[in-house]
From TrEMBL:
Belongs to the SmpB family. HAMAP family: SmpB (MF_00023). The gene is smpB. It is found in: Cytoplasm. Transmembrane segments: none annotated. It comes from Comamonas antarctica. The keyword Ubl conjugation does not apply. GO terms for biological process: trans-translation; trans-translation-dependent protein tagging. InterPro entries: SmpB, SsrA-bd_prot, SsrA-bd_prot_CS. This is SsrA-binding protein. One of its GO terms (cellular component) is cytosol. The lineage of its organism: Bacteria, Pseudomonadati, Pseudomonadota, Betaproteobacteria, Burkholderiales. GO terms for molecular function: RNA binding. The keyword RNA-binding applies. Gene3D superfamilies: 2.40.280.10.
């Protein structure tokens, strides 16, 4: 009997999100997927960079997430790589997110996809867009950390 692990394993990350947004709060949502999509996720055939979350009729949907079908996909299935995927959250959480998103400047962005107890979960964040000066600060901080790591590495040799 296979033992389920509690530690989530990453499928894909949206690295661009941390550069473009400040994160206010994070949520973990389930995803409604087809069988071929799950198989493609196991192979890592996913791109999350251009994805965003919209709210329609009190439900959350992930748009722009590309899950590329495997070459061995069944012939009777017509895979659509850019299909809109429904996200699953509790009603109270969705209502609270709707209220926050209606405020000026807030949006919902996907941060990553990961496995949790054999299920695919999406981590989404309530985010506020960064201005150009904030992005420059992010780049400056990142380069500073790299220089410190290089100096420490050369010092330890």
């Amino acid at each position: 009997m296979a033992k389920k692990t509690d530690s989530p394993s990453r499928i894909a990350d949206n690295k661009k999100a941390a550069y473009n947004y400040f994160f206010e709060e994070r949520h973990e949502a389930g995803m409604v997927l087809h069988g071929w999509e799950v198989k493609a996720l196991r192979e890592g055939k996913v791109q999350l960079t251009d994805g965003y979350v919209v709210i329609k009729d009190g439900e959350l949907f992930l748009i722009g997430c590309q899950i590329n079908p495997l070459r061995t996909a069944s012939t009777h299935v017509s895979p659509d790589a850019a299909r809109t995927k429904k996200l699953l959250l509790h009603k109270e959480e969705i209502k609270r997110l709707i209220g926050k998103v209606e405020q000026k400047g807030y949006t919902l962005v996907p941060l990553n996809l990961h496995w949790k107890n054999g299920l695919v979960k999406a981590e989404i964040a309530l985010a506020k867009g960064k201005g150009e000066h904030d992005k420059r600060d992010t780049i400056k901080d990142r380069e500073g950390k790299r220089e410190v790591e290089r100096a420490m590495k050369s010092r330890n040799r």
